Amino acid sequence: MTGAEKPVRFAAPPETLDDRPDPLLRQVMSDRLLAVTPATPVRTALEAMLAQDVHHLPVLDGHHCRGMATEADLLRGIAAQRSPLGWTVLRVADVHGPALLLPGTARLSEAARLMTDRGRDAVLVETGGRIRGIVTATDLVRRWRP
Fold this sequence. Notes:
Elements: H1 25-28, H2 42-52, E1 56-61, E2 64-70, H3 71-80, E3 82-83, E4 86-87, H4 92-95, E5 101-103, H5 108-118, E6 122-127, E7 130-136, H6 137-144
Parallel strand pairs: 5-6
Antiparallel strand pairs: 1-2, 3-4, 6-7
Helix pairs in contact: 2-3
């Protein structure tokens, strides 16, 4: 490489790329979302998650995303509600993790890299400052399986 050439940087490492297209998130996202507020009791959020067969709950305060609650977050919260001093009611705000946000114009490989770098298994897709959909690790596996 000469001094004038810049190295190519892929959203995903080159060894993960193949001949399949790298679609925009808005093309592959699921728009089936169930959201909760920070004040939602953990048990209520888990029951809603199970009833709707979803695995991630964006935590919204108005239109502002405060984070994302996963099944593991909520189960840890259920377990933590019992203490030596008795039962307490935890809210989603007490247990949720960070939300990863990308615009709908981002590529699927960018979502994969962000999930890997941050140790999360889903990315929320936003357009115009609002959450429009979600892409999960399961979506990635389904899209890129051999």
